[in-house]
Amino acid sequence: MATHYRGSEREQRALNLFIALTRSSDSLQKAALRKAPLPEGTTLSQFGILEALLHLGPLPQTVVAQKVLKTKGNISVVVSHLEDRGLVQRRRSKADRRQLVIELTSAGRELIAGYFPHMATGFAESAQVLSAEEQATLTTLCKKLGVGADSL
Amino acid sequence: MATHYRGSEREQRALNLFIALTRSSDSLQKAALRKAPLPEGTTLSQFGILEALLHLGPLPQTVVAQKVLKTKGNISVVVSHLEDRGLVQRRRSKADRRQLVIELTSAGRELIAGYFPHMATGFAESAQVLSAEEQATLTTLCKKLGVGADSL
DNA sequence: TTCTGATTGTTCAACGTTGAACTATTGCAT
DNA sequence: ATGCAATAGTTCAACGTTGAACAATCAGAA
């Protein structure tokens, strides 16, 4: 589990932190998916985009890319797949004709709105090994770390 | 940053935790890579395998798969790429003739041993926004969460 | 207005990733 | 010894992912 690298204390601490972060988010994700399998034919990437649209409303692709931490090229591809499946639709923005605003179709809304609560329950159950206070501490420290790392 | 899902307190807490975990590990990784770009032609996946071999010695592919949290099919592909690049070599195990033991070539060892310390420094610098105690707390909570989630 | 640089999205090559079907080998139970 | 379930690895289709090259549009300066 821990790194086998023989470096300074400081480096080993940082490496162990990174490994623990990566594995725990991976474990949490997998546990939630075990409890709430994705709808047939829906991938994790597609889910991420559908979820953003459900909770934030119609968005231009660039904004979607920022939300799900992927590149615009990637979003373009995955949105096309969602469009092929009839879950999403592209609309040219009148304000800025470069933008394509993505919005859920009724089928897409039904799919994601019907599924998401199961996933939320899955996360809640999986996170229960930590107390509410521990979860809050963990979240706070992660945010501090993330913001700090981004500004380097 | 936080979820926009309107569910129970418990669910929102778990979702926010997951988002924070994901983003912080992503930020930490990207910050480290900014400070220490991977060697030309080396991908993150290839790096992961080289690193495992450097610090754990020659390993059969199944073990590598467990270490880097990927499937055996994936390891097979990436190891082939590493073999093409002359960084790694497959050796049929005598004890169990099903196993292929992967080991670093001298070129591979030189590459990863020369690069890894830079990455370690990058992680250490990026993690410095947290005190040593905070890092330890974060690591401990992550492990507890990970172990708990795995056993569901 | 006109030029110029920045922004939005598409496309493509190369690689990564998974899960399933397949082969070879092993170990065990009978 | 024989048969059989489990294990190690390969391969493939389908999809995801990135970064770079490209076209269209916008916004601001001269």
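qc> Chain B is about 65% helix and 10% strand.
qc> done
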